[in-house]
Each structure stands twice: as C-alpha cells, then as structure tokens.
Write a structure and sequence with these properties.
Length: 417
Amino acid sequence: MGALIIDGNIPLNGRISVHGSKNSVLPILAAALLNGGESIIHNCPDLRDVSSAVNILKYLGCSVKREKDVVIIDSSNLTCNDIPDNLMREMRSSVIFLGAIISRCGSASLTFPGGCELGPRPIDLHLAALRELGCAVLEEGGHITCTADNMQGKDIILSFPSVGATENIMLAAVSCKGTTRILNAAREPEIEDLQRFLRAMGANISGAGSSTIEIVGGARLHNAEHFVIPDRIVASTYIIAAVMTGGEVLIEKIIPEHIMTVTSLLNGAGCSVTLGRDCALVRRTGTLCAFRSIRTMPYPGFPTDVQPPLMALTTRCVGTTVFIENIFENRYRHVSELIRMGADIKIEGKVALVYGVRELSGAKVAATDLRGGAALIIAALGADGTSEITGVSHIDRGYEHIENTLSQLGAKIRRVE
Ligand code: EPZ
C-alpha cells in the first residue's frame, strides 16, 4: 500500500498549480460513451480513480489513449453494457456510468457499488429517477439490471441534491424522448462542467449550477473536446497545508469562486488568502484562531470533502471548533488517527468538537479514505517530529503525486513502498 514519511513543522513556501478536478472528469469520462465518436479531454488528472474509469471504458469497448494530461476516447464500437464486480469495487462512484450506458445501449447491468469508508453510500435516488424516466430496474443478488425500451423525459424532483444522482439523470435524459427537468438538482461546479461537455457534443441541456436543470433529449451527438476545471478540493487542501505550516504559498490554476466558502473562513482566522484571477496567495498573519462552527452543506455551502483537511488545521487553533457533518454519516474516521498525534477531539454523532492544542507529535498513522488521508498529511506537516502515514493508495485516488507537490514547497516528505 505504500507510506509517506513526513518531518513536520517546516514552513511551506513557493508556488504550485492545481490539477484537473477528479469529481468533474469522472462523470465526463462516463459521458464520452454517449456520442459514439471521439472525445478529447484536456487537463485530465493522473489519479487512481481516473485509471479505474478508463479501465471501465476499455472494458466496454472504447479505445482510450493518454498523452500527458490529454485523454482521447473513441466510443464508436461498444462491445458490452455491463460493469463487472472487480471494476465496480475499484471505485464505488462507477455507478455514474449507469446513466451513460443506458443512454447509449438501451440497457445496463452492474453490481451494486458497495459502501465505502464514508458509509453505505446508497443509490436509491439514482434508481428511483431512472425508474421515473421509464427504466425497468431490477435489483437482485447484488446486481442491478436496467432496461429502457421507451424512456420518456419528465420532471424529477430529488429529495436531496445528490451530485451523483443529478449526473446520472443528466446522462440518461440526453437520450430520452421529450424534456426532462431535474428539480432540486445538485449545484456543484462539477455539474456545470459536465453540462459544458454535454453541450460541446451537441446535447440540448441548460441550468446546471442552479437547482433546475433542463435536458431536451434526442439531439444528434458528435465528437467533442473539453478542458476539465481545476480541482477545488485539492486547491483547498493545499491552501490549508500552507496555513498549517505558516509559510507563504501561491496556488495557481484555480477558479477562485469555487473555493470562496473555504477561503472566506480562513481569512481573519490568523491567515490571509488573497484571491487573484486564477490563483490564491496564502500566508499566515498571526496566531491561528478556532472557527467556532463549521457545518458541511451541498454547494455552495462548506464542502464535506474539505471537512477532514480543515479539521486537521483546527487541532492546532486556539479555541474550540464545532464540526457538523451533514452530508456523510461516517466521515470522522480520521479523528482517531489525529488523536494518536495528540489532537483533542470528541465525537457526538455527526458533531465533532475539536479543542485546539499547542502542538501535535509525529506518529505512525493510517489513512482509511481519500480526504481523511489528506487530513493526516496536514496534521503531519504541522506536527513536531516525524510521521509515517500508511494507506497512501487512498490518497492517490484524488491527489496527483502529492509528495512531489509538497516537496516543491519545501516539505520534507518521501514515499516508501
Ligand atoms: C460526490 O459523491 C463526490 N464524488 C464526493 O466526493 C462528494 O463528497 C459528494 O459528491 C458530495 O459533494 C464524486 O463526485 C465522484 P451525493 P456522491 O450523491 O455523488 C446520500 C471525494 O472525496 N445519497 O451528493 O456519492 C449519500 O449517502 C468524494 O472526492 C443517498 O442517500 O455524493 C450521502 O449521504 C467523497 N441516496 C449524500 O446523499 C442516493 O441515491 C450525498 O451524496 C445518493 C446519495
């Protein structure tokens, strides 16, 4: 699984740029099935989850070529419409392929995407929406089989603005007869990026970024080219790392409005984050003060994916920070590892109370999920002594060569297999 060895308390200084968004490129890779032609995707990050998605595209019959950060997909000759268990288990968000396979092939089957470290990760909203569009969905023996003989667009109201369900409906609705409106749709920037790609291939879709998305199905789709937006979670993570170590870092290739909820919190808590057109300049201005309360919400609220990295920072803030995790039911698995490093944290259900301590101590800790692993890296950067973080493959799912990026800023970090 590999491990990272980090010597803490070294200020990070310098400049880095942020890679393309994992949570944007994954649905876009699924959408490349729709046009039965060529899709050229620029700014595609080199991540484990992207490799998993490419493996699925190849299994389905696509040809996929990669030249640096450009991925070229040809989906003209699909040879099957199922995703086997081994590929589903590589990445649970592979469920995002369901809508695209149905759209293109008229039927799809995949194994139930298991839960993950964040909880059961149900897909009831995805399946209910596909049924409303006229899909026959059979759930049996851990398999989901969908057949769509006559899909008809209609209004679909989501009880929760689920990102994945919104994306699956968008991808299925492109091939429905008539108009589909998604009400209470997720508003994340990754949804807007998916809409841009679908429009580039000729789909008639509008409203992404708002709570109502409209798709007029049946358009003839053609080859498309797209540039993936920068990863707002990775940008936020590196900003928090710079604040933790007290350095001055310029983070480039970002979209400032995508991280404003995070940077507005940090400003005035003992650090300054100055946003430029496509960059952020981060520096510490004094003692780190606690944030009182942080509640995770759907976009544009505070992102759940930044909760673990920010919690790592708050372990060293003066005062107490209350976290309320409203999105996932089990997103505190990093807490026990932070406590091993000297943090003082109490969990009460979906609430975490973080009492700031004067220092953290390096320790051997285990990453058990992607953003929890990022939290451990941030804590290690701000700890006295050396830390060893195992389970790095979790972190590699969403952060491109993280040890190289941090070394570029002066961190003493190395990967050991
Ligand atoms: C996406 O997950 C992201 N993943 C997650 O990022 C992110 O944390 C999440 O959105 C919220 O922003 C990708 O885009 C690949 P949801 P997704 O459907 O689509 C419940 C990371 O670290 N729910 O908005 O799975 C669900 O259990 C990952 O990059 C249902 O109950 O998120 C959760 O509690 C982690 N039924 C909540 O909604 C459903 O059918 C949010 O889920 C679907 C979801």
